[in-house]
Amino acid sequence: MVGAFACLLLVSLVPLPFIVALLAVMVITAVLGALIERVAYRPLRQAPRVSAIITALGCGLVIQNTTLSLSPYARPMPRLFESRTFEFAGVTLNSLQLFIIGVSGVLMLGLDFVIRKTDWGIALRATASDRATVPLMGVPVNRVISLTFAVGGALAGAAGVLYSQAYPVVGAAMGALIGWKAFVAAVIGGIGSIRGAVLGGYILGVVEVTTVVVLPSTWRDLIAYSLLLVILIFKPNGLLGSAAQQKV
Amino acid sequence: MPTPRTLGSSVAGCRWALPVLAASAFLAALLHQQWALFNGYTEFVLITAGINIILCASLNLVNGYMGEFSVGHAGFMAVGAYAAGLLAVKILPGATPVWAFPLVVAFGGVIAAAIGFLLALLSFKTRGDYLAIITLAFLMIVKSALENIPFTGGPRGLLGIERLTTLPQTVAWVIVTLWVIRNLVYSKFGRGITAIREDELAAGAMGVRTREAKILAFVVSSFFGGVAGSLFAHQLQFINPATFDIIRSTDILVMVYIGGVASLTGSLLGAVLVTVLAQLLQPLGTWRAVVMPLTLVFLMLFRPRGLLGLREFAWLLPGRELLQRIKEKSP
Amino acid sequence: MTPLLQLDAVTKRFGGLCAVSAARLEVQAGHTHGIIGPNGAGKTTLFNLITGIYTPDEGAIRFEGTNIAGFRPNQIAARGIGRTFQNIRLCRDLTVLDNVRMAYDVRLTSSTWSALLNLPSHRREEQRSIEGSFELLKAFGMDAMAGQLAGGLPYGLQRRLEIARALALKPRLLLLDEPAAGMNSAETLRLMEFLRWVREHFDVTLVLIEHHMKLVMGLCDHITVLDFGVTIADGTPAEIQGNRRVIDAYLGEEVEA
Fold first, then answer.
1. Is the separation of the CB atoms in C250 and C36 below 8 Å?
2. Are strands C66-67 and C58-63 parallel, antiparallel or unpaired?
3. C14 at the A interface (CB within 8 A)?
4. How far is CA B29 from CA B168, B170, C29, in A?
5. Which one of C53, C103, C116 has the shortest CB-CB distance to B207?
6. Do C144 and C212 fall into the same domain?
7. Kind and range of the H or E element at C192?
8. Same domain (yes/no): C217, C154
9. Which residue has the higher pLDDT, C20 or A37?
10. Domain holding B285: CATH number?
11. Distance from chain centroid for Cα C220
12. For residue C95, is it within any domain?
């Protein structure tokens, strides 16, 4: 949501080419993500986990409602991109859709690579699995976590920009539902697995779109969340998640 | 034990404080019913505060005492509101007599409790984030189902509910809720529920019947969530699915965590505080929705368990005199 | 005489790892039974299998003649098996008294309704639970701290409270997972006396996992040695001390010294 708004603000102030705008937005949301981590999460590192979830919820509401108060009405988003329509093997696609698929694909592959292969990715996964020992191994935990929030923020910002291009109306409430859906997709795939999250996202997207084609669009949420429930009943740790073995 | 007795501690230690307080609250509500002590606005706020106390205390059972993170409480509220509303409007046409209203409210609670039971079954295998998501899914399914069933009025909602939620009725339900939940959490079942929060595995190994405890927590919590929904429906006389969205769940969560986890006194305080604050901040318009979550974030930073987390006013605790006697007997 | 507890070819695998493989164990009523073995030998896994935290992949676990494999932990606890944990697992935010009461509660029978409505029958039972738990704490010399939070106790008292909590089940079998961990030799000696007192006073059969050889040899009537999930020896302390395989696998210089 912030991503989309930042983009709207940027392009309405200065005419920028799309890619530059996208990158600029990613930087802004990255900074915002790291900032929230520093102010709201770091002091809670030792507190019960629930407090962190509540703070996250609270921060989301603060950002959303601030935007709502500043801009109560949804605004149209200028197209930053000239759209052409192709027909390929009977499927109609326009260049915008292709572009969105392309950008998200590149970002996902990049993230997967970074988390699996780079030092930071390894440090991140180590921190996730054992926060107490990792600092003793010389990993700068604070910096790793800040960076994680920055990357998360940047990707969310990019998603906001892409979303605002596909559905060119920008409103304060646009983020909340998508945020929960992102959480749902992550859970379907299995928390802690980037590939799972991508898979979960695609499954959720396909199911929603299919539902809309077959049934009235009001059934979309019903079907999507019922699917989620069914998946969690049979695979309590998500499709690609591994069951955490509790140490006794 | 020779502790210095201040006025505060002797009031807090008095076993009659609680019944007297409850009785006078109910009496005041009755007097109001007779002679209209408060104006319409004050009455509205008081009833809202009462409904919020019921919601907050019942959610605290699952989120505070049992340590889960349910975001679906508005779903139980919706089930209760619709069950009671449909019963009163469609199934029993004609005016509902005042004596029958508690039954209608309880009906809403029972239907919600039945669904709470199903959700409890899902909590056997999953915990934490995943259970939170299951409760979210439950909320979305309830809301979406209500929107798609013509019988419930679809997205436009259910109209023509009588205004039966009076102040005495609300106060009575608040007292019942707090009393029952207090009985529960300070019983063997309550110790089991709290032990699940602390360490589910050790609790099981110490003979705590964890499945029964989970079922009980969810069923009681959802029953009173449904009761609150029924009262809410008969206060506003109109309900639609959009009323029971994730925002409403978030509101209840805010009350629970502001007041304090695993504390009934805290729930009372949190619910009243949030209700009053919401009214006071009315002039701020949408900025109100910024102030509330901001308060919550700051509270979490400085008091992660809420104002009265894990604490209780002594006069809520049962069996205290006995404990005191034993302590005095031992050297 | 049928043993109190009998493990018959019990196997538990985690993925490819065979943590316990075809383990045998016989504990006679009234004995104190030691389980020793190097780290990672599967000792704690064995306890988790007995108490139902894990379900065995193969084999039977018979307690007083009944096969309890596949029972849930609380059912096994109610049948009379108590335990402590290697890393103390008390309910830290509950009082000392409530920690004991949660185990004491297994014998309470009042119904859900009587609890929700706080009926007299339920109130009487709760009083019994307070009094009984308090008695137990008194026997352990911990009654003065009944109202404190368990998490605030010093380490030694937390260990002691964990044993008290397990005994509140009135178990016939008590499993102790490294009760002497983190204690110096003077404290270990005191623990040995304490465990002797527990054994007599509560009429309970003890099974303990321990690395302190003095404690094991001084206290146990019978010892089972595990290595890589396999039972490699079984006998009296004297037999174990003389067993070549055990010395090779584990005891080595400690026994010769």
1. yes
2. antiparallel
3. yes
4. 5, 9, 65
5. C103
6. no
7. helix C185-202
8. no
9. C20
10. 1.10.3470
11. 14
12. yes
Backbone dihedral angles phi then psi of residue C176, each to the nearest 5 degrees: -115, 120
pLDDT band at A86 (very low <50, low <70, confident <90, very high): low
Chain C residues in contact with A245 by the CB 8 A cut-off are 14
Range of the domain at C243: 1-80+170-257
Phi, psi of B207 (to 5 degrees): 90, 5
**Which chain C residues are Cβ-neighbours of A248 within 8 angstroms?**
44, 48, 53, 85-86
A 202-231: CB under 8 A from B = 216, 218-222, 224-226, 228-229
Whether residue C68 is found in the same domain as residue C178: yes
Q: CATH number, domain at C49? A: 3.40.50.300
Q: What is the pTM of this model?
A: 0.85
| C182 part of a folded domain | yes
Q: Which of C146, C166, C186 is the last residue of a domain?
A: C166
ipTM of the complex: 0.89
pLDDT above 50 (res C255): no
Hey, are the CB atoms on C91 and B216 less than 8 Å from each other? no
Q: Distance, in angstroms, between A233 CA and closest chain B CA?
A: 7
Cβ contact B192–C91 (<8 Å): no
Which chain B residues are closer than 8 Å to A50 by Cβ? 63, 67, 69, 261
CA distance C121 to chain A (A): 37
Residue that wins the pLDDT comparison between B315 and A167: A167
- Residue C110 domain-assigned (yes or no): yes
Domain count, chain C: 2
User: Kindly report the CA angle at B284 between B278 and B290, in degrees rounded to 5?
Assistant: 70
Nearest CB to B286: which of A47, A72, A228?
A72
Q: Are B5 and B305 in contact (CB under 8 A)?
A: no
State whether B293 and A44 contact (CB < 8 Å). no
CB contact under 8 Å between C82 and B206, yes or no, is yes
Q: Domain extents for chain A?
A: 2-172, 173-242
Does residue C219 contact residue C196 with C-beta atoms inside 8 Å? yes
pLDDT in tens, B93-129: 777 788 889 999 999 999 999 999 999 998 887 777 7
Residue B118 belongs to what domain range? 5-329
The pLDDT > 70 percentage for chain C reads 96
